[in-house]
Amino acid sequence: MSLSMTLTVNGVKRAIELDDPRTTLLDLLREGLQLTGTKKGCDRGQCGACTVILRGRRINSCLALAISHDGADVVTIEGVAQGDRLHPVQEAFLAHDGLQCGFCTSGQIMSAIGLIQEGETGDDPERVREGMSGNLCRCGAYRGITEAVLQAQEVLGAADRKEVA
Ligand code: FES
Ligand code: FES
Protein backbone atom coordinates (compact mmCIF):
# COMPACT_ATOMS: atom_id res chain seq x y z
CA MET A 1 0.00 0.00 0.00
CA SER A 2 1.40 3.40 -0.84
CA LEU A 3 0.56 6.68 0.85
CA SER A 4 0.22 9.98 -0.99
CA MET A 5 1.54 13.18 0.46
CA THR A 6 2.90 16.54 -0.64
CA LEU A 7 5.89 18.47 0.56
CA THR A 8 7.13 21.87 -0.54
CA VAL A 9 10.88 21.41 -0.78
CA ASN A 10 13.01 24.48 -1.37
CA GLY A 11 9.97 26.31 -2.71
CA VAL A 12 8.83 23.56 -5.09
CA LYS A 13 5.69 21.57 -4.31
CA ARG A 14 6.31 17.85 -4.72
CA ALA A 15 3.72 15.07 -4.90
CA ILE A 16 5.12 11.99 -3.19
CA GLU A 17 4.09 8.34 -2.99
CA LEU A 18 5.46 6.65 0.11
CA ASP A 19 5.78 2.87 -0.02
CA ASP A 20 6.51 2.62 3.67
CA PRO A 21 4.73 4.76 6.29
CA ARG A 22 7.85 4.47 8.47
CA THR A 23 9.99 6.42 5.97
CA THR A 24 11.83 9.23 7.70
CA LEU A 25 12.01 12.70 6.23
CA LEU A 26 15.77 12.15 5.87
CA ASP A 27 15.35 9.01 3.77
CA LEU A 28 12.64 10.64 1.71
CA LEU A 29 14.90 13.61 0.92
CA ARG A 30 17.99 11.53 0.17
CA GLU A 31 16.54 8.47 -1.48
CA GLY A 32 13.13 9.59 -2.73
CA LEU A 33 14.03 13.08 -3.93
CA GLN A 34 17.78 12.61 -4.49
CA LEU A 35 18.60 15.59 -2.31
CA THR A 36 21.75 14.09 -0.87
CA GLY A 37 23.15 17.32 0.55
CA THR A 38 21.38 16.42 3.80
CA LYS A 39 23.66 13.84 5.43
CA LYS A 40 22.94 10.71 7.42
CA GLY A 41 25.37 10.41 10.32
CA CYS A 42 23.95 8.57 13.31
CA ASP A 43 20.32 8.18 12.11
CA ARG A 44 19.21 8.50 15.72
CA GLY A 45 19.08 12.19 16.58
CA GLN A 46 22.54 12.53 18.05
CA CYS A 47 24.79 14.20 15.48
CA GLY A 48 22.78 16.90 13.64
CA ALA A 49 24.16 15.96 10.20
CA CYS A 50 20.58 15.64 8.93
CA THR A 51 19.39 19.09 10.03
CA VAL A 52 16.83 20.79 7.79
CA ILE A 53 14.40 23.66 8.34
CA LEU A 54 10.86 22.31 8.63
CA ARG A 55 8.00 24.81 8.94
CA GLY A 56 10.59 27.46 9.83
CA ARG A 57 12.30 25.48 12.62
CA ARG A 58 15.49 23.45 12.51
CA ILE A 59 14.96 19.75 13.11
CA ASN A 60 16.81 16.46 12.86
CA SER A 61 15.18 14.95 9.79
CA CYS A 62 16.21 11.41 10.82
CA LEU A 63 13.77 11.65 13.73
CA ALA A 64 10.83 12.96 11.66
CA LEU A 65 8.38 10.61 10.01
CA ALA A 66 7.77 11.99 6.52
CA ILE A 67 4.05 11.22 6.54
CA SER A 68 3.56 13.27 9.73
CA HIS A 69 4.57 16.34 7.77
CA ASP A 70 2.20 16.09 4.86
CA GLY A 71 1.84 19.55 3.29
CA ALA A 72 4.80 21.04 5.14
CA ASP A 73 7.47 23.40 3.88
CA VAL A 74 11.07 22.14 4.04
CA VAL A 75 14.31 23.92 3.28
CA THR A 76 17.45 21.84 2.72
CA ILE A 77 21.03 22.85 2.01
CA GLU A 78 20.24 22.69 -1.72
CA GLY A 79 17.77 25.55 -1.24
CA VAL A 80 19.82 28.17 0.57
CA ALA A 81 22.03 29.68 -2.14
CA GLN A 82 20.44 31.95 -4.73
CA GLY A 83 21.82 30.71 -8.02
CA ASP A 84 25.57 31.38 -7.89
CA ARG A 85 25.22 33.57 -4.83
CA LEU A 86 25.97 31.73 -1.62
CA HIS A 87 23.90 32.30 1.51
CA PRO A 88 25.72 34.57 4.02
CA VAL A 89 26.07 31.59 6.37
CA GLN A 90 27.77 29.55 3.62
CA GLU A 91 30.10 32.46 2.87
CA ALA A 92 30.97 32.82 6.53
CA PHE A 93 31.79 29.10 6.87
CA LEU A 94 34.22 29.45 3.96
CA ALA A 95 35.73 32.65 5.31
CA HIS A 96 36.31 31.16 8.78
CA ASP A 97 37.34 27.62 7.79
CA GLY A 98 34.27 26.25 9.55
CA LEU A 99 34.84 22.83 8.00
CA GLN A 100 37.42 20.21 7.23
CA CYS A 101 36.01 16.99 5.69
CA GLY A 102 32.65 18.69 5.17
CA PHE A 103 30.46 15.77 6.22
CA CYS A 104 28.76 17.69 9.02
CA THR A 105 28.73 21.00 7.16
CA SER A 106 25.31 21.02 5.55
CA GLY A 107 23.75 20.19 8.91
CA GLN A 108 25.87 22.85 10.62
CA ILE A 109 24.81 25.46 8.07
CA MET A 110 21.11 24.61 8.31
CA SER A 111 21.34 24.64 12.08
CA ALA A 112 23.15 27.99 12.01
CA ILE A 113 20.44 29.46 9.77
CA GLY A 114 17.80 28.20 12.21
CA LEU A 115 19.73 29.51 15.21
CA ILE A 116 20.13 32.97 13.67
CA GLN A 117 16.40 33.05 12.88
CA GLU A 118 15.65 32.16 16.50
CA GLY A 119 17.62 35.32 17.39
CA GLU A 120 18.47 34.36 20.95
CA THR A 121 22.23 34.18 21.11
CA GLY A 122 23.20 37.83 20.69
CA ASP A 123 26.92 38.13 20.00
CA ASP A 124 27.90 35.79 22.80
CA PRO A 125 30.16 32.96 21.48
CA GLU A 126 29.22 30.77 24.44
CA ARG A 127 25.52 30.97 23.58
CA VAL A 128 26.30 30.27 19.93
CA ARG A 129 28.26 27.18 21.00
CA GLU A 130 25.36 26.09 23.17
CA GLY A 131 22.84 26.74 20.37
CA MET A 132 24.95 24.69 17.96
CA SER A 133 25.69 21.89 20.43
CA GLY A 134 23.32 19.46 18.72
CA ASN A 135 25.60 19.48 15.67
CA LEU A 136 28.71 17.39 16.13
CA CYS A 137 31.87 17.80 14.07
CA ARG A 138 34.30 14.91 14.22
CA CYS A 139 36.98 17.10 12.63
CA GLY A 140 36.69 19.54 15.51
CA ALA A 141 36.13 22.65 13.39
CA TYR A 142 34.14 24.20 16.22
CA ARG A 143 36.15 27.38 16.53
CA GLY A 144 35.62 28.29 12.86
CA ILE A 145 31.96 27.29 13.08
CA THR A 146 31.32 29.61 16.02
CA GLU A 147 33.15 32.48 14.32
CA ALA A 148 31.19 31.84 11.12
CA VAL A 149 27.84 31.91 12.91
CA LEU A 150 28.75 35.16 14.65
CA GLN A 151 29.84 36.77 11.39
CA ALA A 152 26.78 35.59 9.46
CA GLN A 153 24.55 36.84 12.24
CA GLU A 154 26.12 40.26 11.95
CA VAL A 155 25.81 40.32 8.14
CA LEU A 156 22.17 39.19 8.24
CA GLY A 157 21.37 41.66 11.02
CA ALA A 158 22.90 44.48 8.96
CA ALA A 159 20.84 43.38 5.94
CA ASP A 160 17.66 43.45 8.06
CA ARG A 161 18.50 46.91 9.36
CA LYS A 162 18.99 48.11 5.77
CA GLU A 163 15.60 46.70 4.78
CA VAL A 164 13.78 48.66 7.46
CA ALA A 165 15.84 51.85 6.95
S1 FES B 1 21.64 11.60 11.30
FE1 FES B 1 20.07 12.68 12.28
S2 FES B 1 20.94 13.40 14.11
FE2 FES B 1 22.47 12.13 13.21
S1 FES C 1 34.06 19.01 9.01
FE1 FES C 1 34.42 16.88 9.20
S2 FES C 1 32.89 16.25 10.58
FE2 FES C 1 32.74 18.39 10.60
List keywords for this structure.
alpha+beta, 5 strands, 36% helix, 165 residues, binds FE2/S2 (inorganic) cluster
The sequence of SSEs as H and E is EEHEEEHHHH
Distance between the termini: 55 Å
Mean pLDDT: 96
Provide the β-strand percentage band: 15-25%
Bound molecules: FE2/S2 (inorganic) cluster
Q: How many extended strands?
A: 5
Poorly predicted sequence stretches spanning 5 or more consecutive residues: none
Helix content percent band: 25-40%
Radius of gyration: 16 Å
Order of adjacent strands in the largest pleated sheet: 2-1-5-3-4
SS element count, helices: 5
User: Describe the biggest sheet?
Assistant: 5 strands, mixed
Q: What is the SS-derived class?
A: alpha+beta
- The quaternary state of the protein chains shown equals single chain
Characterise the protein shown here.
The chain has five helices and five strands, in the order ββαβββαααα. With 165 residues, the protein is an alpha+beta fold. The chain has a five-stranded mixed sheet, sandwiched between helices. The protein starts with a strand and ends with a helix. 37% of the residues are buried. The structure holds FE2/S2 (inorganic) cluster (FES) (2 copies).
Ordered list of secondary-structure elements with their pairings:
Elements: E1 3-9, E2 12-18, H1 25-32, E3 51-54, E4 57-60, E5 73-75, H2 88-95, H3 105-118, H4 125-131, H5 142-164
Helix pairs in contact: 2-5, 3-5
The structure holds FE2/S2 (inorganic) cluster (2 copies).
